[in-house]
């Protein structure tokens, strides 16, 4: 005997307003950590317990109630400098990624859409920049421009835009022959309008994923240049310069530990967000990875049983 449950009495599945990719533990952890650091960067001047430039505390004091992360060789509060360092590093890293994304997307879109000699010239310039190791080229550019945090950002933009050009060009090459793009051109759309209206909106997903993953790389690059003396200059609070100062006082473990943990946490957070964004914008690839995981586990179990 089959029982038919009325539709009104059947339990309804609650739908979450978050996509499935954003409900994973790594996505939630990454989002929370990133939001916390962004709030810290915004509110740093008001929540810092001490003036980050004031030298009015005992020198090289270990973490205590007065200075929860200790003090540096000049008697400055490490915790306050860490908070102000977020205000320096995070916004500049975001600006670096946005500028590199815009430049690379424009170059790649123009090269892929127009083709011909324009494509050859732009892609050979891209190849020339990518031929050099990223960090080495950034060091050379920053040293040529002069040690400062803004010159470090400019160096980062110069070395970071080629991957965006490459991925944009490949996507545009696949879209420019689509029926809706050809139809728009036949209806009188100019190349620039067709590119902006029909092509670029359809390649935004992969470009944004690359940008979200690049934020962590940008933070590492800026901190690395500052560590080498080519970025932020003392007494500006910046995580890379704080670690560089810690190298001169290795017995004071707290000088390098806390800035290093700050860099580690923010880089991992944006990497988690980038992975989740990739799964959210490409659900098919995410389902394929999930389908492959049980297969791999079953194969491993079968191999173990056979052994």
Automatic annotation (TrEMBL):
SUPFAM superfamilies: MetI-like. It is a multi-pass membrane protein. The keyword Transmembrane helix applies. It is found in: Cell membrane. The chain crosses the membrane at residues 21-48, 90-114, 135-161, 207-232, 252-273. Its main location: membrane. The keyword Transport applies. Belongs to the binding-protein-dependent transport system permease family. This is Putative D,D-dipeptide transport system permease protein DdpC. It comes from Microbacterium azadirachtae.
């Amino acid at each position: 005997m089959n029982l038919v449950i009325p539709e009104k009495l059947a339990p309804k599945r609650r739908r979450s307003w978050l996509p499935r990719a954003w409900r994973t533990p790594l996505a939630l952890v990454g989002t929370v950590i990133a939001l916390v650091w962004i709030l810290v960067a915004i509110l740093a001047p008001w929540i810092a317990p001490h003036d980050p430039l004031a030298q009015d505390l005992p020198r090289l004091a270990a973490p205590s109630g007065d200075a929860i992360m200790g003090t540096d060789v000049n008697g400055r509060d490490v915790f306050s400098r860490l908070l102000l360092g977020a205000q320096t590093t995070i916004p500049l890293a975001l600006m670096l990624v946005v500028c590199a994304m815009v430049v690379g997307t424009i170059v790649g879109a123009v090269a892929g859409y127009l083709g011909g000699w324009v494509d050859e010239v732009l892609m050979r310039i891209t190849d020339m920049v990518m031929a050099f190791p990223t960090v080495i080229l950034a060091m050379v550019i920053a040293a040529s421009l002069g040690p400062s945090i803004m010159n470090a950002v400019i160096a980062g933009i110069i070395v970071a835009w080629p991957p965006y050009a490459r991925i944009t060009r490949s996507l545009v090459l696949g879209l420019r022959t689509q029926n809706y793009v050809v139809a728009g051109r036949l209806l009188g759309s100019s190349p620039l309008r067709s590119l902006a209206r029909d092509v670029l909106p359809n390649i935004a997903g992969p470009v944004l994923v690359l940008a979200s993953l690049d934020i962590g790389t940008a933070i590492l690059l800026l901190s690395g240049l500052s560590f080498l003396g080519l970025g932020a200059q003392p007494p500006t609070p910046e995580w890379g310069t704080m670690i560089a100062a810690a190298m001169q006082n290795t017995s004071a473990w707290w000088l390098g530990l806390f800035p290093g943990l700050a860099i580690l946490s923010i880089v991992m957070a944006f990497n988690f967000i980038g992975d989740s964004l990739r799964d959210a914008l490409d659900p098919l690839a995410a389902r394929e990875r999930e389908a492959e995981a049980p297969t791999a586990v079953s194969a491993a179990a079968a191999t173990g049983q056979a052994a």
